[in-house]
Design goal:
catalytic activity, Nucleoside_phosphorylase_sf, five-stranded antiparallel beta sheet, 2 domains, disordered C terminus, Nucleoside phosphorylase domain-containing protein, five-stranded mixed barrel, NLR-like
């Protein structure tokens, strides 16, 4: 049996609400293949990222209920799902935090983490209408699991180091798998195409885009929003906070600002509440507009890609209890491998699709090169792991390079 068809091996479930979000997600997979699930009437996309076998699914339509149903079906067909990610695009709140100093620009990524008494996602349309005609929100959602939150915190620390984020690298790899036309859509549109219009300036015609229609003198470009809005190409800022989720699209700037003020929401989307009401997943959103009347699709593909690239970074720092082996071999092949090398047994196998792990039974040496770090075992059987973005340790008798 093809090992990829073994549903028990998949431990990470990835929800992609839209087709372009699925495209970005597949671009992060290694050894991508499709797996039909007749009982679900859908086709899943499977592969692995780092040490994790990952299953992905696209929702039939946007909304809280379709996302909840997609996850329920996935967990039935793939019974060993331990970690769930909801990855896609959202409308961003342009300014937040003390004195509204923090700046979200198009292409940035928002990650839902517990803050201000929230688990990271607020279902802001679920609650009770009071006598004063105001809605008291009572929508309860779970927070991400401890394993996912620990991976996020490790990644936040790694981003502060000199090596920084691997998002630019993952974006380039994603684009290489696309056709020419699609590749252009997934490029960074650039600061010159990022316009934050004044709150009281309403888009005059929904049938047309802002280009050639809206008065750009009534918009702030990034260079007028201060240094916190500056970005290099393919280097989005990552924001951590509360994500607003509901079945309604938010177009008025006033409503967006109200939700920020009442619930400390920093971005708005339409699926996470359906997942987080029953499961401790992680919600990751790329910002494609400012949740106002000036919505357009120019930034959607790129925002989907930045969110997917960040999700891949998280998975690379999420521990796995099992080794990933993407190649199947017969017992004869394994016997042949173990009789090679020094005569005491030498075995080589692929590890996570990103490097080679080699074991020599004669010396007791294990060397692994992968994107997570480098692992060494010396002849005495001692084991060391380098940091995520680090370099091999310097111990007596150890190799000095893993290249």
């Amino acid at each position: 049996m093809d090992p990829s068809n073994d549903t028990s091996r998949y431990t990470v479930g990835w929800i992609a609400p839209l087709a372009l979000e699925l495209t970005a997600a597949i671009g992060m997979l290694e050894d991508h293949t499709m797996m039909p699930a007749p009982e679900d009437d859908v086709i899943y996309h499977v592969g692995h990222i780092g040490l994790h076998f990952v299953v992905m699914v696209v929702c039939p339509r946007i909304g809280i209920e379709p996302a909840a149903t997609a996850l329920a079906n996935m967990r039935r067909s793939f019974p060993n799902i331990k970690h769930v990610l909801v990855v896609g695009i959202a409308g961003g709140v342009p300014c937040y935090g003390p004195d509204l100093r923090e700046q979200i620009v198009l292409g940035d990524v928002v990650v839902g983490v517990p803050q201000h008494g929230s688990g990271g996602v607020t279902h802001y349309e679920f609650g009770t209408w009071e006598d004063n005609n105001e809605l008291t929100v009572k929508g309860h959602t779970l927070h991400p699991s401890s394993a996912l939150l620990t991976a996020v915190n490790n990644l936040r620390s790694a981003h502060m180091m000199a090596a920084g984020s691997r998002i630019p690298e993952y974006l380039q790899e994603c684009r290489m798998g696309l056709n020419k036309r699609s590749r252009q859509a997934f490029e960074d549109p650039g600061a010159e195409n990022d316009h934050l219009f004044e709150d009281d300036y309403v888009h005059p015609d929904r049938g047309r885009t802002c280009e050639g229609l809206c008065d750009t003198t009534r918009a702030k470009r990034r260079d007028y929003r201060g240094y916190l809005a500056e970005r290099e190409t393919d280097q989005p800022e990552i924001h951590y906070g509360n994500i607003g989720s509901a079945n309604a699209v938010v177009r008025p700037s006033a409503k967006r600002n109200e939700l920020r003020a009442r619930h400390n929401i920093i971005c708005l989307e339409m699926e996470a509440a359906g997942v987080m009401s029953d499961y401790q997943g992680l919600v990751i959103r790329g910002i494609c507009d400012y949740a106002d009347s000036h919505k357009n699709k120019k930034w959607q593909a790129y925002a989907a890609a930045t969110a997917a690239a960040y999700a891949k970074e998280v998975l690379m720092l999420l521990p796995s209890g099992k080794r990933v082996s993407t190649e199947s071999s017969s017992s004869d092949d394994r016997n042949e491998d173990s009789s090679s090398g020094s005569g005491r047994g030498h075995q080589t196998f692929h590890n996570s699709g990103t490097g080679i792990m080699s074991f020599n039974a004669g010396s007791g040496s294990l060397t692994s090169n992968n994107a997570v770090g480098t692992q060494y075992n010396n002849a005495a059987g001692n084991q060391y792991n380098t940091p995520f973005y680090g370099h091999p340790p310097s111990f007596p008798g150890w190799p000095r390079s893993n290249r």
